[in-house]
Amino acid sequence: MTEYEIINGCLNDNIKCQRMLFEQYAGKMLAVCLRYTKTKMEAEDVLQEAFLRIFKYIHQFKFEGSFEGWIRRIVVNTALKNISKKKINFSEMTDYNQVSATIEPYAYSNLGEDVILKLISQLPEGYRLVFNLNVIEGYSHEEIGNMLNIQASTSRSQLVKARKILQNKILNIQKIAV
Amino acid sequence: MKMNDKLFDDFIKEKIGNHVATVPVDMWNKIVQEKGRDKKSIYWWQPVAAVVVVGCMAIFFGWFDPFGTSEAEFKQGSTLQYNAIDLNSHGVTFNSQLSNSANQNSKTPENLAPQNISKLSNQVTNGKAVPTTFKDNNIARQNIKSSSIKSNLKATNQRLNANSSKNNLGSTSRPKTWMKNNISNEEVQSESPIAQVAIRPYYDRFSLVSIKEKIAAQNAASNISLSNKKSNFFSSVDCPSDRRSGNHGLYFELFGSPDIAFKQMEYKKVGNGINSKDSTSNKQLSYSLGFRLTKEIGQNLLVKTGLQYAQINERFDYRNENERTVSTVITIRTITNSNGTTTTIRDTSLVEQIGYRVKTTYNRYRSWDVPVILGYELNGEGWKANINGGAIFNLSSTQQGEFLDTSYRPASFSKSGPAIFKKKVGVGLYAGLSFIKEISNCTSFFAEPYIRYSLSDRTTNASPFTQRFHTAGILLGIRFKLNGSGAAK
User: Fold this and answer.
1) B61 Cβ partners below 8 Å, 6+ apart?
2) How far apart are CA B156 and CA A110, in angstroms?
3) Tell me, what's the pLDDT at B117?
4) What is the ipTM of this complex?
5) Which of A31, A134, B146, B329 would disulfide-bridge B124, Cβ 3.0–4.6 Å?
6) Which residue among B3, B23, B38 sits closest to A26, beta carbon to beta carbon?
7) CB neighbours of B26 closer than 8 A, spacing ≥ 6?
């Protein structure tokens, strides 16, 4: 079945089409949820809630743009809603190393996806959120400011700090590997 | 080359942007369970909420009467009857009879004459005779001590005179006139607390009515025989007792209406000319049913609300010109040759028939709505009219049937399909003109031609076409007055 047919089937509340949609996108969206949550159980809860919202509001998809992008936005918003209950503190971590680690490009090539995901999950909550939204989802700092109710400048500084921490962690891993 | 920030970000995004995680096996079952629970919780509360809202409004207007004035409580079990008045011999004569349910059948209008008032008084005041004096055709002053009441009344004397002469009233041999409200200023003292309490609300109402100048002798004239019949026939039929003497009526209306629906439909993709070619849908007779509570909120102003069910019917005819059916034909032949042997030959062949096929489906569009309408009341001689306008709020909408899709084939939309049609259609505008005819003290018949204009489409954004219905019809119904009996306005 084509994506159009699956979507139309979901519009008609066809359970078979809904399952096909779930099977097609659940893996990717679970990976998205894992980046926003601390535990896998929490990520699964977010994914479940996200798909319920997708099926409920699928009639709002106007067949303009990427359907995967539309689903991803719903998943991210659901994850943010889940996180907002915890009241994240976007405070700055004290970082004595003012200079970002300089790592040769080849050092990154050995890094697996799981390692990178693990490094990201170890970031402080606020840093992780901003990093995910800006670097991976592609939101601007102004958009992130609106979504998280922070200033755009706070978002920028959080991203810089997050990037520095990640780079330092990767460097440490390379040192250990060597 | 060192990794700068942009390269670092791109690297991370490329690595994990499309990462796929392993989904637990039971995740889908959990989603299905949760979906089922959500569906059940959505559908049942809407009609319940509508009933609760309408019930609360009925209780609020019926019991608290925010626009009325409070008066002394009407004594339980007592009723009042205003009987005929003999104009000719006594000028303006007012007889009142206080009766309880045990004495309802004891008096008839024709039998009452002023000379009987004293007897009547005696019945109430344990034997005291009460003198009664009247002025001819003018302000009358009564001192009925026993069955008297306390009130302030105004008379329309000229009208009274004109009408009495016009209608040749007052002959003692004729049935007496029903003069409900043509009582002039009278100060009547009451020594009977029962009488005072019981009769007072009626006089207060009369005073308000006469202030409005709604009571005319023409009513009396036209109601000569009718009122006599009324007083006899309806003496045992009591309207709900009047708890407050405020003149703010509360009515309950039941109605049904045959409707005609006008469909406004347009396909979004018009490349193949489907908008002009679609003639598959044909109007059928539609209908509405419902009830309304009507409350007077001021001078000739009414507010109406309630609940109604509307069903729009449509016939969908689809004719397929290239319908093909294949039939299997078995031919059995028996051949007898010259030897006398018989040979049976079975020949099976397929026959294709090409023709046209007509498919007829009856589409149904159902909706539950709450009307909120303002009305302006006009009064005439023996008739009333309301000019109504307002909004109709849709609570829920369902449909079933078929439509023609953009490939010229029939496609079905289910009763609860969210894909093509909305579950709530939104708001529509309503305008109607109601003609009301009284058939008894608290019952009226009304006919109200109306139009209803829908402000939003019935279809969702995902539908290949936009569709809305505008309806016109004529409400036919019965109206019950819930507070107060006695004379209609």
Assistant:
1) B250, B293, B295
2) 107
3) 41
4) 0.83
5) B146
6) B23
7) none
